[in-house]
């Protein structure tokens, strides 16, 4: 494998960790729609604040997905209450390659605000930590660096109603980075994550579902020659179910299919990976919540090693996230 090919592969892996499988998305949506049509008319047990239940013109209560981070990597459509400020510290981790010792962390510090109903804005800063030793094609490194900045805007364009159990939102998160997260090597990049979000109440006050489709085009400097800029992209299809065990505790499971591509518009898929793992949310108080998930790669393929079970060229053996959310009242 030549130096240019190695650099291109590393660049592809930074373009979020994507996916394609529209057929799977349709199948999941149809299955949940069938379940939702059965439960859409069910009345909730009580009216909870903070994303509990809403009403149509003082009529029957409409079950709502709680506004906290009750899923894992998958985001819900909730945008918070008008005038609400928030802070979140989100630690995303990536661990394990085919050989050697590999760990990359990206710590995201996010400040958010809901200026008016159904609109949410955020600004974030990132710190990266790389601990890599004896991994093929990646230099040894042990360093903590400022990674980059991003902003985000989310719009919930369709709310739930008595006749519609789903809510839908769109979001865009442009970002600028100064290092390659996969390797820890300094290389400027810029891009944006375009997100489509959906969620629904399966059983009021008990079971919730969400799904996201994300596309991330990226432009990044070549790791070998900073005068060359390379284009890549990633996409992600992710879906999650969460069970409410008590007023303050939610547990569930999440599936994500990620893929990496050469070119900004899915020119050639160079690898994909499927992740599955448990999720948990603990509402420490009305203002503070803690979310966690750990997800190993259960299957995948890379064009560099098509006979092997996992794609560890573009992705990692396991990915995880710990997120602390604070919403002052």
Give the topology.
Elements: H1 3-14, H2 22-39, E1 53-55, E2 61-63, E3 85-95, E4 101-116, E5 119-133, E6 141-158, E7 166-179, E8 186-203, E9 207-221, E10 229-244, E11 249-262, E12 268-283, E13 288-302, E14 318-326
State the end-to-end distance.
56 Å
Name of the CATH first level: Mainly Beta
> How many DSSP E strands?
14
Architecture per CATH nomenclature, i.e. the level-2 architecture:
Beta Barrel
Number of helical segments with 4 or more residues: 2
Low-confidence stretches: 1-52
CATH names the topology as Porin
Largest sheet: 12 strands, antiparallel, barrel
Biggest sheet, spatial arrangement of strands? 3-4-5-6-7-8-9-10-11-12-13-14
The overall pLDDT average reads 86
Give the radius of gyration.
20 Å
Would you list the SSEs in sequence order as H and E? HHEEEEEEEEEEEEEE
Name the CATH superfamily classification.
monomeric porin ompg
β-strand percent reads over 45%
Structurally, the number of domains stands at: 1
Class inferred from helices and paired strands: mainly beta
Helix share of residues?
A: under 10%
Overall shape: globular
């Amino acid at each position: 494998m030549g130096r240019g090919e190695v650099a291109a592969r590393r660049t592809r892996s930074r373009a979020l960790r994507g996916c394609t499988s529209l057929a799977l998305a349709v199948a999941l949506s149809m299955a949940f729609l069938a379940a939702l049509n059965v439960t859409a008319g069910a009345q909730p047990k009580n009216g909870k604040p903070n994303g509990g239940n809403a009403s149509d013109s003082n009529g029957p209560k409409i079950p709502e997905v709680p506004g906290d981070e009750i899923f894992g990597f998958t985001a819900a459509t909730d945008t918070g209450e008008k005038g609400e400020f928030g802070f979140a510290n989100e630690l995303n981790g990536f661990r394990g390659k085919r050989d050697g010792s590999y760990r990359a962390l990206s710590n995201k510090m996010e400040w958010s605000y809901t200026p008016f109903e159904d609109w949410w804005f955020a600004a974030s800063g990132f710190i990266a930590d790389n601990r890599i030793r004896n991994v093929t094609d990646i230099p040894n490194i042990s360093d903590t660096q400022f990674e980059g900045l991003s902003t985000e805007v989310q719009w919930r364009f369709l709310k739930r109603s008595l006749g519609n159990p789903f809510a839908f939102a769109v979001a865009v998160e442009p970002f600028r980075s100064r290092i390659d997260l996969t390797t820890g090597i300094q290389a400027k990049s810029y891009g944006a994550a375009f997100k489509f979000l959906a969620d629904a109440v399966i059983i009021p006050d008990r079971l919730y579902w969400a799904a996201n489709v994300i596309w991330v085009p990226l432009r990044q400097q070549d790791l070998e020659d900073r005068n060359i800029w390379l284009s890549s992209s990633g996409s992600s299809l992710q879906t999650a179910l969460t069970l409410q065990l008590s007023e303050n505790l939610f547990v569930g499971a999440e599936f994500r299919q990620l893929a990496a591509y050469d070119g900004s518009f899915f020119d050639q898929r160079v690898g994909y990976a499927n992740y599955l793992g448990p999720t948990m949310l603990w509402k420490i108080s009305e203002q503070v919540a803690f979310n966690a998930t750990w997800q190993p790669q259960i299957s995948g393929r890379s064009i560099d090693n098509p006979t092997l079970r996992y794609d560890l060229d573009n992705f990692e053996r396991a990915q995880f996230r710990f997120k602390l959310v604070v919403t002052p009242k």
